[in-house]
UniProtKB/TrEMBL annotation:
Molecular function terms from GO: peptidyl-prolyl cis-trans isomerase activity
Catalytic function, reaction form: [protein]-peptidylproline (omega=180) = [protein]-peptidylproline (omega=0)
PPIase FKBP-type domain: residues covered: 37-123
Keywords associated with the record: Isomerase, Rotamase
InterPro entries, A to Z: PPIase_dom_sf, PPIase_FKBP_dom
Biased composition (Basic and acidic residues): 1-10
Pfam families: FKBP_C
Renumbered residue ranges of the record's region Disordered: 1-20
Protein's UniProt name: Peptidyl-prolyl cis-trans isomerase
Family: Belongs to the FKBP-type PPIase family.
Known EC number: 5.2.1.8
Gene3D superfamilies membership: 3.10.50.40
Length: 123
């Protein structure tokens, strides 16, 4: 059983990065379900696929984030709906569903990213 009350750890991936979004439920929640139009309250950890280096974490800031799904990267817009409050989901997001191709202006452009997301609430 994975503990969703503490910061997740991500094992270094093996093999080439996937070319499309990979959605993996680590814990199935039993609360309200996120929909494409939801505003979500989440804790998350993000690491670079190639290096395994953490680039962002709401856990490290000690505060969850609350966002409308439409304001987030495509990988989250596609990967969070269907998730239920109390759940933990791992998303492996290729560049075209994250921050675009290399040279796109964002420091994570061209990177495949891995997120572990804990869904705390939906509205």
């Amino acid at each position: 059983m994975t503990d969703t009350n503490s910061k997740p750890e991500i094992d270094a991936p093996e093999g080439p990065a996937p070319e499309d979004l990979v959605i993996e439920d680590l814990v199935i929640g039993d609360g309200a379900e996120a929909t494409p139009g939801s505003t979500v309250d989440v804790h998350y950890l993000g690491v670079e696929y190639d290096s395994g280096e953490e680039f962002d974490s709401s856990w490290s800031r000690g505060q969850s984030i609350n966002f409308p799904l439409q304001a987030l990267i495509a990988g989250w817009q596609e990967g969070i709906p269907g998730m239920k409050v109390g759940g933990r989901r791992k998303l492996t997001v290729p560049p075209h569903k994250a921050y675009g191709p290399a040279g796109g202006g964002h420091r994570l452009s061209g990177q495949t990213l891995i997120f572990v997301i804990d869904l705390l609430g939906v509205s």
